[in-house]
Amino acid sequence: MHYKGWIKRDQQDLLISTLGDGLMMTSGAPEAPQICLHALGVAMLELHGAMVRMLPSILQNLVRIYSAAQLSVHLLEFVSSISRNQGLYTNFRKGDYQVLFAVAINYIRFHNNQRRRETSLSTNTAGARPADVGEKSDPRRQSTGAIPASPSEKQLLNDVALSQYVLVMAYQVIDVYFLSLTPALKAEMFDSIIVGLLQSNYSRSNLDEVNEVCLDMVLQNHSRSSEDILGLSDVTVQEDFGPVVERHWIQHNGIVTIRAQKEGLMAQIIERSCSGATSRIVDLTAEVSRKYVERAERTERPPTSLPASPLSDSPVSAFGSLSQSASRGRSIGRNRRLHSMAPGLPSLHHEPDMLPHDSIARLLRGELLSQSDLSRAPRFPMRFGAAPCLALEFINAYQGLQNLDVPVMLPPNFEAVARSLRIFDNTAMVDTHKVSVAYVGPGQTTEREILLNQQGSPAYWNFLRGMGHIRRLGQMKDFSAGLDTSGQDSDGRYTLGWRDLIAKLIFHVGTLMPAREDKQEQIVRKKAHMGNDFVHIVFNESGRDYEFDTIPSQFNFVQIIVTPVDGQ
């Protein structure tokens, strides 16, 4: 919007407010809300200040129109795009976040209710007699003697794919906004998120798998800030400690692995769960001492002696007293009441009772709490504090959370366990994507000319600086989009990368990858990387339109053409 500098502040607010009001026009002009959502998406970037001021009222309108099926994809993508611009929701309060979570949970509930209706209809139709189906279900058969053709198989597949996409987007909204919260706000939002997920659960007997993963995400990240989460690696790498002793413990949906040096004090503690994994390096002696002192300070008893390493032959190392129940810890949400996820509605619960103390453990086992329990007791018994014994401080899959099942040691040196963990460790914990960046110089029109480019204009390099961070390929241990990280620099020394709380991008930057005229294998290798990417970003300074098939590929579905104006 080159003219945005001419729009005064009050006019900007009026424009955004009008677009927000347009979201409510779902009956008279059904295409208007979709157009308004797209316009608001542009305003996020071009009229940032006005969007920050008007966003709370826009979110209120989103809750009112969630049932419009034709808007589901556009609405959820709009809400998700807000999360990519942290400046838009820096000043959000609890009520604003409740609206966002309400939008996502309403879509999950809507999707699962629709599945139940379709399943019920299919069951009733299959159980009916042929005569009933033909004569009673469809009166048109009586008048015409034929039933109109059913929707095509392709259309049905498209409907299913769209429905699944909406469901995935709804969970993504929950993930990204919960991970962005401060630990204090996470504690306040826990009850409403979990109860909302349980009330929208599709199965009547077991917790849905996607809800299990979402619950695990909440429990694993309840005390982490967004900065801590961004610092986590997206894959698990086993450190080279030389000869090690390795043991695994399973607890609900989590597995804890301790790899301790046979001839040293260092150890790697890996915590894996269905929503991600973390790894940390510790000095066992120092870590045991620190945890022992912390436990002593909690109980206000001075330490008398330090226990041995948790992997030694001491009573603590045998992980004794694991059956003791947690008796201490602070309760989160003890004085809070859960209100309806939809703003403005009265509380759905009237009894102050808390759910049974094993409620979280039951959910992690995949069990579903009864609706009577949920309606009678609005609060979850979330207790955080010291584990019953020091050993559990090391092997608990959910650090600091009490009232869970005791971890169980897996058989050591069992190949099936080791193989499963290797597969898990090679799976990225965030969405990973690879995108090509090509520079087209003045007068260039052919694929070979573009692939041979090793330099670009100042405007091009300035464009690259805004796309991500420079990564040294030889030092990368996580997702590298297939680029050589062995240190031989066959794909160049550097690349660009970007990530947020739930996604990571690695760019195949053509000008950062080697390609000489006399080395055909380098050109082929560069084409192999760039040609296999679904998305190409083309910085075009050729002076003419860029043709879509300039770099032909079976996978090149999207091209983003960037043409500088006046060298900028």
What does this structure look like?
The protein is an alpha+beta fold and 568 residues long. 42% of the residues lie in helices and 14% in strands. The chain contains 19 helices and 13 strands. It has helices at 9-22, 32-46, 48-64, 72-83, 94-127, 130-137, 140-144, 153-180, 183-199, 209-220, 226-230, 284-298, 359-364, 371-376, 390-395, 415-425, 447-451, 458-465, 520-531, and strands at residues 244-251, 254-261, 266-273, 276-283, 330-332, 382-384, 408-409, 431-440, 469-472, 494-499, 503-509, 535-540, 558-562. Strands 9-10-11-8-12-13 form a six-stranded mixed sheet, with helices on both faces. Strands 4-3-2-1-7 form a five-stranded antiparallel sheet. A hairpin with a 4-residue loop joins strand 2 (254-261) and strand 3. It is globular. The chain starts with 8 loop residues before the first helix and ends in a 6-residue tail after the last strand.
